[in-house]
Amino acid sequence: MTEILKAVIVDDESSARNFLTDLLAELPWVEVAGEAAGVDEAFGLVVRQKPDVIFLDVQMSGEDGFALVEQLLQKQIRVEIIFTTAYERYAIRAIKAAAFDYLLKPVRRNELAGSLEKLRERLHGSDMNSRLSELIFQLSDKKKIKFRIQTGFVMLDAGQILFCSADEAGTLLELESGKNTKVSMCLKEVENLLPERCFARISRSLVINLHYLTHVDRKSMTCEIVNGTRHLLPVSKKYLQELEIKCHRHFFLHG
Questions:
Q1: Are 8 and 36 within 8 A, CB to CB?
Q2: Which end of the chain is more exposed for a tag (fewer CB within 10 A), N or C?
């Protein structure tokens, strides 16, 4: 394949931009179409250059990298994203599901080349926009989801669900209306249907909606889910660190 892959670099540190530019210069089939130090500048650059991929720093001064993703989604601009970050805590499943890839800083030459080779194959395959389409799906908690029940199925918005608890022969969905619905699916099946950035597992038998999380107590290993009614739920030590990471990621987007 000889097609040129057009890239844009977004990072608030000039040294990081320069370092990545130098690495990309070693790949003759990659063209750096521009650099940006912030979200607004980056958005304009993407609109003008229409790149195949954006190398996007997660944590920047001012707005973070996820703010750019939201702008692109709002304008329905489809482009592949490779997140770059100096902090391994950002390399969580939610990011991996939404982006084409992520690279830890300092970016390594072989990892960069390998990621771009995979990207080039995907872009010149049958579905150039599949990853951002998945990102749109992951960032939306207002989509209808079909859950199996004994007599058929129910359609629910993810945002209606406060938490999910494993139950005999199924899963109980506690809803914001105060009602609950039992579905004929195991907790893992339910979890796989939910937008990953908005939901977090807190134990083997519980998955919560981060929108309704108000408090986590490390001493008592509990958390509070509040929507008019207060629900005090146990948190397993095994899932505490992942819960903290997901909360950090979630509130980056929602403030």
A1: yes
A2: C
Residue 143 is predicted with a pLDDT of 65
Helix-helix angle 39-49:65-74, to 10 degrees: 40
Mark whether 31 and 70 lie in a shared domain.
Answer: yes
Question: 224 and 109, same structural domain?
Answer: no
Q: What is the pLDDT of residue 1?
A: 44
Q: What are phi and psi of 159, to 5 degrees?
A: -65, -15
Query: What integer pLDDT is reported at residue 204 of this predicted model?
Result: 94
Number of domains the chain is built from: 2
CA-CA-CA-CA torsion sign (199, 200, 202, 206): positive
CATH code of 85's domain: 3.40.50.2300
Residues 90 and 145 reside in one and the same domain: no
pTM comes to 0.52
Please give the residue range of the domain that contains residue 58: 5-138
Stretches where the chain sits below pLDDT 50 are: 1-2, 93-94, 97, 126, 128-133, 139, 251-255
Same domain, 20 and 105: yes
